[in-house]
Amino acid sequence: MEKVLIIGANGHTGRIIATKLKDAASYIPVAMIRDAGQKDYFEEMGVQTCMGDLEEEFESCYKTVDKVIFVAGSGSSTGKDKTESIDKDGAQKSVDLAKKHGIKKYVMLSSMGAEDPDPDSGMHHYLSAKNLADEHLKKSGVPYAIVRPGALTHKNGTGKIKAAFQLEEQGEIPREDVASVMIHCLDRDYGTGLTFEILSGDQDIPTAIEGLRQV
How many C-beta atoms surround the C-beta of residue 125 within 10 A? Predict the structure, then answer.
């Protein structure tokens, strides 16, 4: 059983990942939280927690884990300073700690559009921060997968996606399916060294990701 640190565990996607990992045969989730008030939610569902803050210290969370899923984000209601400190600086620090502690696999939640942020877009600052975090991970030497979904929804997952290094379309995907993709990528045999985009589609997740390796 491998322990997986979920950074951003208290967010919508993070909570789904924690729930799925709790029932997984091969993994034990560890939810990183920055507020003690969040502890009860995870402990009631049988998920271990650790205290950590991306804007301060969180290295202690790495000491007993094997792999990392990063799904933290500053949110749409915060300013550029929070985007900088969480989506870029915090993410980069989490990668550095992964390298220091010999993490076996790091799965990063990014975003479609991060590859080449449109300077005229209102999302430019956010996507640029995600891009810098992604590039930092790629250069770190840590085994990784970077998942770039389209617009996230709260619909029920279907288990069906489309995946490509760059999709030539816009669209959406349920958070539940994104969570499933990221968990699937924890396995060293899937998605390692890949950066890819996903939307809702008609392929099951293992087939869609395996297809990327054959391109």
Answer: 16
pTM beyond 0.85, yes or no = yes
Structural contact between residues 90 and 8, judged by C-beta atoms closer than 8 angstroms: no
Longest dimension (CA), the chain: 46
What's the one-letter identity of residue 169? Answer: E
Given the residues 62, 106, 126, 190, the one annotated as active site: 126
Chain segment 1-33, per-residue pLDDT in tens: 999 999 999 999 999 999 999 999 999 999 999
Question: In the predicted model, what is the mean pLDDT of the chain?
Answer: 93
126 is a catalytic site residue: yes
Contact indicator for 138, 144 with CB cutoff of 8 Å: yes
Mean per-residue pLDDT for 50-55? Answer: 96
Neighbours of 76 (CB within 10 A): 8
Q: CA-CA distances (angstroms) from residue 161 to 46, 134, 197?
A: 30, 22, 10
Task: Tell me what the mean pLDDT of segment 38-51 comes to.
Answer: 96
Q: Which two tokens stand for residue 104?
A: 């076996």
The percentage of residues in the chain with a pLDDT greater than 70, rounded to a whole number, is 97
